[in-house]
Design a protein that fits this description.
Length: about 100
């Protein structure tokens, strides 16, 4: 019992160090994942534009004059119309 009491503070410090390192790695990986996801969205938008044009449809101009349309959660009405198929596919893949 006495032996365990002497090393308890060292155990707590060691556990805290391990937890901080793990937490730091998780944070780093999440930031990397956000970058990769934004690149994927960008490439999906390019692909969707190519598909729409290949089908002979006209793309509506983004109300905010963004080349690939509004990115992110908030989209203008034209971008919602243009990219509804790609975004709906992405939303179903996320929920799987």
């Amino acid at each position: 019992m006495e032996f365990a009491l002497k090393f308890e503070p060292a155990t707590e410090v060691f556990t805290e160090l391990i937890f901080q390192k793990t937490e730091s790695q998780v944070s780093y990986l999440k930031s990397q994942l956000r970058d990769i996801q934004s690149q994927l969205v960008h490439q999906e938008r390019i692909f969707a534009r190519i598909e729409i044009r290949r089908q002979g449809r006209e793309l509506l101009t983004c109300e905010y004059k963004n080349r690939l349309g509004c990115l992110g959660v908030y989209q203008c009405g034209n971008c919602q119309t243009n990219y509804s198929v790609a975004d709906n596919r992405q939303a179903t893949e996320i929920t799987k």
